[in-house]
Amino acid sequence: MSTVTIIMGSKSDLPALKGAFDTLKEFGVDCEGRILSAHRTPDAAAELAKNAEENGTKVLICAAGMAAHLAGVIAGHTVLPVIGIPMASAPFNGLDSLLAMVQMPPGIPVATVTAGNAGGKNAALLAIQMLALSDPELMQKLKDFRVKQAEKVLADDKVLRESGYSALI
Ligand code: RP5
User: Fewer CB within 10 Å, N side or C side of the chain?
Assistant: First the structure.
């Protein structure tokens, strides 16, 4: 198993996870994706979670929509950190997923990040921040990333101030 395992409840969640895969790749963190459901494949999902620590996984990212119990069920079977991404599924645009995921009972935490497509990138970054606590090289990459990100916003700000609204769209 890889350092980070990304589990999604359905193949339909995959497009929203591009940011997670891309970000982990950008930082050189090995990851693997799995499609397993808390409801449709409960035994396989539990099996993965129970064996994750022994198999070398450090952080699990779980994306699910609707009655999004995947992250919570995985967290119940492992002491590894679990990061949940609520998928923005119809008809409630992810509010159902968010509430199902974020309201974990005391004792079994899930770190729930931004709902929908933007959640993939933030889940990956949070996983990287956890891994960086024991990896100085990764910590430096995170610091460099923040500097570059800020520089980009400030460059956009400069263009907006100097050239006006239409220069940025
Ligand atoms: C959840 O139900 C999945 O995570 C997905 O977001 C949602 C819908 O699944 P599909 O019907 O598209 O397979 O379990």
Answer: C
